[in-house]
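Re: weekly structure request thread

Next one in the queue (335 aa):
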Amino acid sequence: MDLTYRPRRLRRTHSLRAMVRENLLSPSDFIYPLFVHQGSQEEEIGAMPGAKRWSLDNVLNEVHRAWGLGIRCIVLFPKISEDLKSEDGSECFNENGLIPRAISLIKKELPDMTVMTDVALDPYSCDGHDGIVSKEGIVLNDETIEQLCRQAVVQAQAGADLIGPSDMMDGRVGAIREALDDEGFAPVGIISYTAKYSSAYYGPFREALDSAPRLDTRKVIPKDKSTYQMDPANSREAIIEAQLDEQEGADILMVKPGLAYLDIIYRLREESELPIAAYNVSGEYAMVKAAAQKGWIDERSVVLETLLSFKRAGADLILTYHACDAAGWLRNQLD
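Done, posted below.
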């Protein structure tokens, strides 16, 4: 055939492919989620094979392991005891609570590790929602933000580097930015869950934290989070959320979930100059683990291809439960 252009010329050898590769994965791209709890031992999470709830005594070993693999940021999620949960989630700003103690321990032991936190009420709420639920079953926006600001300040006081509002209340980024600045924490960044969708992919995470919406005979509890998390059918709305978060002072924008919303990552990358993060959520993780356990897929190849897809779509950072495995595989590739 008389062809002038043959794209396969640059695919012919490994070294040629490496020379023209457009996107690369690095362990420093990853944010590693860690579940912590009040217990004295680590606990397996049934719906998330390989993931654990860590005690304060042994979470430091896992943080050191992540650091040794080249991961430079972890995010903490709390499994709170039932007796500490309440309708207003006030345990979230307890200075001696689980998360502030975990932050302090990690920053004392490994000060260079970037510590990100989660700001929302669902782990602390007896109703299982990200905000305060009225007797009429309405998740209250402004009243919730008052609690979130107090939570963010306590986390910053403990040593957090990045505050991650995951609640999807309107105006919370600006309010948290003002609260942090007023308390002398201007250097603390905000990584906002900008486009967080009301997704079915969150199930295993809610098992890990026991944070799903609950039934209550005393009042109406919304069965899901669709009145504040985004409609999966919408994409233009994500641009509005991103513009608002930028105006309010967000430093990094996040899309959650990641894999089913690559188009949203791409759109935000086109619209914003801020760093973009993708959240490779628990349901995505669990499906890969389940298929790998059945022998239906090659876990390493699928994970690395999935993570690379986030980069190709425009993500700078990837929050993933695969972080340590992926970092190890990438290191072996270099070796």
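The radius of gyration is 20 Å. The longest helix spans residues 141-158.
Next request, please.
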